[in-house]
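Appendix C reproduces, verbatim, an entry submitted by the partner laboratory led by Prof. M.T., so that reviewers can inspect both the input and the predicted structure.
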Amino acid sequence: QTQLVESGGGLVQAGGSLKLSCEASISLFSVSAMRWYRQAPGNQRELVASITSGGTTNYRDSVKDRFTISRDNAKKTVYLQMNSLKPEDTGVYYCNSQLGGYWGQGTQVTVSS
């Protein structure tokens, strides 16, 4: 059974925006911290942003002031708004739940220069 499903990726020019969504079917979504990771070809998966059940957010330095993570517990969905995209933001973006350790299948984001 699929627990996390990402969507919203695509191809965008540098400076553009994308909004990723991750819809969860886990019962403990509202009390679980949620995270967005990304993985570029040849690189390790890296944490991009996280949000606690209470709404506290954290970001890696390279995306601060450009990316915003948010959640809607009623819809069991976590979002990643990405603005001022750069070619180095290219990669597969994955959603992860702290509780249960679930992963989505990933959504590709490609930023052209």
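The chain has a mean pLDDT of 96. Additional entries are available on request from the coordinating office.
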